[in-house]
Amino acid sequence: MNDDEPRFVISEAAVLAGMHPQTLRQYDRLGLVSPRRARGRGRRYSPRDVAKLREVYRLSHEEGINLAGIKKILALEERVERLEGMLEALALRADPGRRVFAAASSGDVVIVPRGRRASVPEGDERGRSSAGRRSEGCGRPRE
């Protein structure tokens, strides 16, 4: 089964997480755990949501972290997961004959074939001298 599939109404999720349903409503209002909504606007919690509720409880009661701190922790954990996913996707696209560390003008990481440099957008002369060569100290050493 999918851990992200919303399966539990609020009363079931509260029992599974060991909390009162009102606590789940408060966490939803604060943006700590935001379940999906059914057609009638009722909350539907996934197994992942229940696990997150348990983690919020643990951080609050065992570690003594306030809800604002917990919200930041959860946001950072989600960001790390998203970045790890992006890194994994890039690693799958890469092979030994490619590089994965160039940045496009949009800020995205792009693959640049070995022996080539990422292109500089027209009109962007950063890192270049007036003669069009790379400024001293930039780039890799010449072989």
Automatic annotation (TrEMBL):
InterPro entries per record: DNA-bd_dom_put_sf (IPR009061), MerR-type_HTH_dom (IPR000551), MerR_fam (IPR047057)
Protein name per its UniProtKB record: Transcriptional regulator
One Pfam family, short name: MerR_1
Keywords per UniProt: DNA-binding
Limits of the HTH merR-type domain: 7-76
Taxonomy, superkingdom: Bacteria
Organism annotation: Luteimicrobium album
UniProt-annotated stretches for the region Disordered: 114-143
Feature: compositional bias, Basic and acidic residues: 123-143
